[in-house]
């Protein structure tokens, strides 16, 4: 091998090492340097309607109205189907109860559900009730469990522009986005490796535009490095669930995290 070829190989090797060092330094800065911004309490999401009289996860009318009266602009409600295929506000049927002795294990009918009074006094909500509330009250509805845009359109077609829908798969994200909703792709243990792969391909310019503008992630300080990296490189917006640590919220909301679900 000629001296010229050997010299060229050394130059290329040095260039590769330099590039990797620069990339490593840039990633380190992206991971460690906090993102600037201002705390905004209006960016809190009232989880399952918010708290009411010390009760959480009720998804009740009273909880929603209480959260709005306290300044909440984002209301999260869980949706499930009744036995007669109507959409109502409940996360798991086993969590619905009229008193301590009544815990249905399977879907109820819409009538039985609407006749319930949670904890003996709180009003259950159907999707129709929620759509009516949205007609008269100004809030953003965040949803859980239901990702079928055709089913959501049965009740919320006129409110698509005010709805954020959590989903778990890329196909769901695209379908919701095409229908006019704002989808949020959840990062979880089942799809995390796939998302990292997509991120790497994007950084290497193998993929085109990053399609997931909103993502949701579980509360945890260990997730903050990933949030910083995704936000700095891709401009992704994040909603974090569920954080009742007021110090943590004050430190990160409006900075690393765009929205935070809370119970209190």
Order of H and E elements? HEHEEHEEHEHEHEHEHEHE
CATH architecture of the domain at 42-78 and 138-262: Alpha-Beta Barrel
Strand ordering within the main sheet? 1-2-6-7-8-9-10-11
Structural class: alpha/beta
Low-confidence stretches: none
CATH superfamily of the domain at 42-78 and 138-262: Aldolase class I
Q: State the helix count.
A: 9
CATH topology of the domain at 42-78 and 138-262: TIM Barrel
N- to C-terminal distance: 72 Å
- The CATH class assignment of the domain at 42-78 and 138-262 is Alpha Beta
What is the rounded Rg? 23 Å
Helix content: 25-40%
Mean of pLDDT: 85
Quantity of strands, as a count:
11
Largest sheet: 8 strands, parallel, barrel
User: Which term fits the overall shape?
Assistant: elongated
Strand content: 15-25%
Q: Which labels suit this protein?
A:
two-stranded antiparallel sheet; 39% helix; eight-stranded parallel barrel; elongated; alpha/beta; 18% strand; 264 residues; 9 helices; TIM Barrel
